[in-house]
Amino acid sequence: MPDRKRIFTIGGTLFAIAGIGFFMQNGQSGPGQAAMNQAASEPVEILDISRAEPTAADTRETSEVEASSTANPTEAEATSDTALMDSIAEEPAPEVETSTSAGDDPAIPNPEQAQARDEAAQTVFESAALDDPVITVAPEITPEISEASRDDQATQEPDETQTCDPEMKVETVAAALVNVSIHAECLPNERVTLEHAEMVFSEATDAEGKLEVTIPALVEDARITATFVDDHAVSASATVSSLEFYDRAVIQSSNDSAVTLHALEYGAEHTDRGHVWSEATGGIENAATGKGGFLITLGDPSMDNARVAQVYSFPTGIAQEEGQVELSVEIEVTDRNCGRTVDAKAMQRSAAGELDVKSLSLTMPDCDAIGDLLVLKNLVNDLKVARN
To answer: Over the stretch 276-331, which tens digit does the pLDDT of each residue have?
Structure first.
């Protein structure tokens, strides 16, 4: 059912403006004017709002206003009133009844009443012009959320980073190696520091938060720990029973130090096949058959301030040939380390199970020596190989 108050307001406005327009156009009283004045002064009774139909008096007043507007189309007030009437006429006006005193003739106006009504009509006209539009609709207001409510919502909604739980799986494989798989979907492309025994190196997850790396075990009960930059950490352990068949040497440094580990197997020279280093790493299959060693580089050298490690492994416990493996550490003078101090750490594990750790701090030559090599012989020990 339509809103009673709104229909009453529209109907009352229609009759008020219709009467004002008629008065302004004709400037004199008449039968229609008197009826309008009578309707304006008398109380309005709403009979049936939901099924209101215009009365004959309403139709007569509307026709008179339209005729007056046609006779004077140049006047701004008449045009404005007629346009407003046309916009309101689309909605049916409520049916109203007016009562007249027994002794009053609506066709004969009282001069004093006419003057008072004229002044009231002028006031209503000016008020309608100032208050246009007559009908206003209140906008829908969305309640504001207070700062305290926002804080409560932030507290209730979990932060994905805070609830992140990286996962790690470890698996032992041939040659006393441990395959490490890290899954941290909530930490894609994130820096990771991996630690095992005394060895530390830097890696990064991929776009899906995954990282896979193969680590040579340095102790039989191999525990691997991965720590992210936001202090998230995950660890896992594996038992590497085949470690007793391998000797291992490790050199660890920063990515810009240009420190490399070299192994010369069975009297080989630097240009021979038996020279194992970062550019000729050997093969795990050789170690599995006891024919030779191999080298694995850990860490991502493309990262800023990354830690890297090189691990050389030789199968002394299953070697098919006796002899010696000469181990050395070389540092090339580059534009990134010249004139600076290079820090490094050397680790060596024998087949007997002992882990020897040495630290190095060396001031490099000036930059006019770029391209030269520094060879350190005593940082790691040579291997004596017996035939098995």
So the answer is: 999 999 999 989 889 999 999 999 999 999 999 999 999 999 999 999 999 999 99
User: Which one, of 51, 45, 47, 34, lies nearest residue 12 by Cα?
Assistant: 45
Burial class of residue 186 in the structure, from the number of CB atoms within 10 Å of its CB (0-12 exposed, 13-18 middle, 19+ buried): middle
Pairing of strands 199-204, 210-216: unpaired
Residues 242, 315, 388, 352, Cα dihedral to 10°? -60
| Torsion angle defined by CA atoms of residues 201, 204, 210 and 216, in that order, rounded to the nearest 10 degrees | -20
- CA 318/CA 243 separation, integer angstroms: 12
**CA-to-CA distance for 276 and 274, rounded, in angstroms?**
6
19: closest CA among 135, 110, 120? Answer: 120
pTM: 0.59
d(CA 173, CA 153) in angstroms, rounded, equals: 49
CA distance 322 to 340: 41
